[in-house]
Sequence to fold (460 residues):
Amino acid sequence: MGHVAAHRGAGQRWCARLAVAAAVGAGVLLLCVAGLKSVALVAVGLAGLAVAAAAGWWALTRRGVVRGVAAALAAAAPVAVLVSYVAARLLWVVLVCLALWALAAAAGWAALRADATPGTAPGRPVPPPGHACLLMNPRSGGGKVGRFRLKEKAEAMGADVLLLDTARHRDVAQLARDALDRGADLLGVAGGDGTQALVADVAAERGVPFMVLPAGTRNHFALDLGLDRDDPSRSLEALTDGVEFRVDLGRVGGRVFVNNASFGAYAEVVQSPAYRDDKVGTVLQLLPGVLTRQHGPRLSVRADAVTVDGPQAVLVSNNPYRVGDRAGLGRRDRLDGGVLGVLSITVDSAVEAADLLRGRHAPGLRSLTAGELVIDADQPEVQVGVDGEALALPTPVRCASEPGALLVRVPRNRPGVPPARPRLDWRRLWTLAFTAGRALPPAGVPGVRGPSRGSGRSVG
Fold:
């Protein structure tokens, strides 16, 4: 074990040294070759990004000729930046510096996460269920139930399988309750996240374990449980070699969600009857009115002492999503933190749209956590997308976390949740690269408990 730790520490140090050397090399190359022009190079690049972002905002919020001109400007801005670099005969310098920065970032992340392990939640080994009932939607995910022979494999393991017919089975929750009344001691779903949430609510209500078969299109809940989304049949191993642990549920206006509930622009657009047949056309038609607040409600968010007034979009999630890691956006490091994550976007001008390039530091992007919160509006009801399902809910809408409400059963052997990519801390990398001895523990390891329930605290 000591041998392995020493080898790992040496690898961290060399990755840190490579990161520092590549970053310094990029700066030295830029200054030596371009001199004072290096400042202009950076300024031109940033200006091009800002113009493209602002033009993109105009393209989304305008119609007709103005939209076409704005879209052309958004496409032309980065091209103009490249042409200016070519004219100055410094394009190669920019490309080499970008490559060096990419190398520095990759090596830095490798150094800082070398000790991190996949964030697979611990579980308690359990015996096989006595009477498992699995509800499967044969149309979900383009027919994954049939393609992976989930029904046949589940029945071979002793489970009862009920194939859902959306034309006949309108109340999936009632089907789950009927199965429990017949003696089922485990419920499972092969379908989309919306169906997962409906049956998970019943399982939590009755106190029975719940099993996820990732047979939907996106399978975000399965992703954050560490399941194999490429082969949903592997999740059936939970019937014979499973572990159990508890996760939170979210509730919005009385409806349970396992992933998120969205308010504002997205929810308004997907509610349109035309959206299903013409997604792009409907988005282009409705977004200008929604983003400029000419159509749809004006929202407000209250989470303890924090108030966000007038956001165009709000995403309330069952535990917070990663916001500092673009590669991990859409993932949650844990499902048992006992809090809701809240992301809101407020943009009222092209300048503020360009400011979103600052990421989590942009004033228009708010990231909070809270045990519960209230979404209000200047209209009697708002459109909400709950785990992908479109609903209309009366205002004000109360959202709350239900800590540990759901007992989930998963296979003992599963891929797990990849660790979050740590923030590039250059001071730390310098210390790790040039300080002899034992390496510092990696930063940003998942599993460190975040803000307490109900804190209303900004994160990022």
